[in-house]
């Protein structure tokens, strides 16, 4: 302590050690008399039961307290060693943690988020920082925010949006926090972010965390199983992370078998009998055609809500039920798409099918502005977008009155689908699942369209089915 006067974190660590040694009897340690009483008690609380300490004089006023004291208090909260009303007799610890989310010191704000992650009595409702300001925060705060968001955000669209945004943040420390938050978390559709993110990530630490996540959830997500096998082949330094994540999954056996087969080649590179046995295993796959679809969903808060999550979830479930598909349909979902994100999303994904689900009107599609409200994008702008992105073959507009937009885009594509009137949610869900299911069975765009109209006719009647049109 004498050697590190003026360094509160080190002094606090020494106080905690002494409190542990003396079982909280701080009055028996002469050298502690010169230590700030708040630092002394807060440091001791980290290792000693509060009942053994004198807390009578402890009251932390957040408006005037030294930032070091606030950090120690937040550490105490995060370690679940806090007592009720630690900061103020009139306010709960959660209320104070939330208020400190606006404190000007980056470390204090980082500890606020960390304490919400770690404290058993706090939840994301006690967070005093908005995810809307994520990109404006310091990297250390971003890291904890992204970890918390990946673990605790309940709304699936908001959670997906935060994870997607976090995967593009420039600072590796922040992306590392996000990857840590995903280690024990998966939901249907997350692979659209993580697999692409893994391919562009340049931090080995972050890639290691992603590799472990991918392997851990390989039973729930078949593309993860394929990706994990590819990672082991292409990036041997991540092998141990993949094996760690694969424990207790069926992937673990595949990885072991793959290693065995790789070790049975003779001097002339001829495979052994084991290789022949493995020819029928999932490790050796026939090449299938791949179609990539980018599904953009937008439902501004000032418009009638749509069941866009139902459409995406139903489609994924239906594709999993396709037996012996001849085409792999790869889906990437983007939720709450803003107009200023549209070109970026398309250029990053390079899809063959561009799919929009949301509101439309004559000559325009409706996206969101930065505040989640309505902003209109003209049909001419959509047509120019598909003309500029050569990967796009098909445009599917699952939106009311979108035929006029479809006609503008038709000269540049193999197939364009729109609607000449209003479309109900049930019809939109039925059309989507049947269209992509037919593609997975190897049908071309025109026959997939007919299958989709037939599905709507079966379930919603001819009136709804005939509202879909295909161009040219």
Detailed description of the structure:
The structure is a single chain. The protein has 472 residues and is an alpha/beta fold. It has a 6-stranded mixed beta sheet with strand order 2-1-3-7-8-9, sandwiched between helices. A hairpin with a 5-residue loop joins strand 5 and strand 6. It is elongated, with a radius of gyration of 28 Å. 43% of the residues are buried.
Q: Which band does the percent of strand residues land in?
A: 5-15%
> Strand sequence of the main sheet, in spatial order?
2-1-3-7-8-9
Q: Estimate the helix proportion, in percent.
A: 40-55%
Largest sheet: 6 strands, mixed
- Give the SSE string: HHHHHHHHHHHHHHEHEHEEEEHEHEHHHE
Tally of helical runs: 21
List low-pLDDT spans.
264-285
Structural class: alpha/beta
What is the 3D form?
elongated
Tell me, rounded to a whole number, the average pLDDT: 87
Q: What is the tally of beta strands?
A: 9
What is Rg?
28 Å
- Rounded to the nearest angstrom, the distance between the terminal CA atoms is 80 Å
List the helices and strands and how they pair.
Blueprint: H1 8-21, H2 37-45, H3 67-78, H4 93-100, H5 106-118, H6 139-152, H7 156-167, H8 172-182, H9 191-200, H10 204-216, H11 222-234, H12 239-246, H13 250-262, H14 273-278, E1 289-298, H15 308-320, E2 327-334, H16 342-349, E3 353-358, E4 360-361, E5 364-368, E6 374-378, H17 379-388, E7 394-398, H18 403-409, E8 415-419, H19 425-440, H20 445-460, H21 462-465, E9 468-471
Parallel strand pairs: 1-2, 1-3, 3-7, 7-8
Antiparallel strand pairs: 4-5, 5-6, 8-9
Helix pairs in contact: 1-2, 2-3, 3-5, 4-5, 5-6, 6-7, 6-8, 8-10, 9-10, 10-12, 11-13, 15-19, 17-18, 19-20
């Amino acid at each position: 302590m004498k050697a590190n006067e003026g360094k509160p974190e080190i002094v606090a660590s020494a106080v905690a050690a002494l409190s542990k040694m003396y079982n909280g009897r701080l009055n028996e340690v002469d050298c502690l008399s010169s230590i700030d009483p708040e630092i002394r008690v807060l440091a001791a609380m980290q290792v000693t039961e509060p009942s053994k300490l004198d807390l009578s004089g402890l009251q932390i006023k957040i408006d005037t307290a030294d930032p070091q004291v606030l950090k120690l208090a937040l550490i105490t909260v995060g370690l679940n060693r806090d007592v009720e009303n630690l900061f103020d007799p009139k306010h709960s610890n959660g209320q104070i943690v939330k208020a400190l989310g606006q404190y000007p010191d980056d470390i204090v704000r980082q500890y606020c988020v960390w304490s919400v992650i770690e404290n058993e009595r706090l939840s994301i409702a006690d967070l005093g920082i908005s995810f809307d300001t994520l990109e404006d925060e310091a990297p250390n705060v971003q890291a904890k925010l992204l970890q918390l968001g990946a673990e605790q955000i309940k709304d699936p669209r908001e959670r997906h949006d935060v994870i997607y945004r976090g995967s593009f943040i420039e600072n590796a420390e922040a992306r590392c926090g996000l990857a840590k938050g995903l280690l024990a978390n998966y939901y249907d559709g997350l692979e659209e972010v993580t697999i692409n993110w893994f391919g562009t990530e340049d931090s080995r630490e972050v890639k290691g965390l992603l590799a472990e996540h991918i392997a851990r959830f390989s039973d729930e997500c078949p593309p993860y199983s394929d990706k994990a096998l590819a990672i082991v082949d292409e990036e041997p330094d991540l092998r141990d992370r993949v094996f760690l994540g694969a424990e207790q999954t069926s992937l673990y056996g595949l990885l072991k078998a793959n290693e065995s087969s790789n070790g049975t080649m003779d001097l002339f590179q001829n495979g052994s009998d084991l290789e022949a046995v493995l020819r029928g295993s999932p490790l050796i796959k026939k090449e299938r055609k791949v179609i990539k679809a980018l599904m953009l969903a937008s439902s501004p808060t000032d418009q009638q809500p749509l069941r866009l999550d139902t459409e995406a979830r139903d489609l994924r479930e239906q594709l999993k039920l396709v037996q012996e598909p001849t085409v792999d349909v790869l889906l990437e979902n983007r939720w709450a798409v803003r107009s200023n994100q549209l070109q970026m999303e398309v250029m990053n994904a390079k899809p063959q099918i561009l799919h929009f689900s949301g509101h439309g009107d004559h000559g325009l599609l409706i996206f969101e502005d930065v505040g989640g409200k309505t902003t209109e994008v003209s049909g001419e702008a959509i047509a120019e977008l598909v003309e500029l992105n050569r990967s796009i073959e098909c445009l599917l507009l699952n939106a009311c009155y979108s035929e006029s937009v479809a006609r503008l885009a038709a000269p540049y594509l193999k197939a364009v689908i729109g609607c000449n009137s209003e479309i109900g949610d049930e019809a939109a869900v039925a059309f989507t699942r049947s269209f992509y299911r037919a593609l997975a069975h190897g049908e071309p765009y025109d026959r997939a369209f007919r299958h989709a109209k037939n599905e709507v006719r079966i379930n919603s009647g001819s009136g709804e089915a005939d509202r879909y049109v295909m161009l040219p």
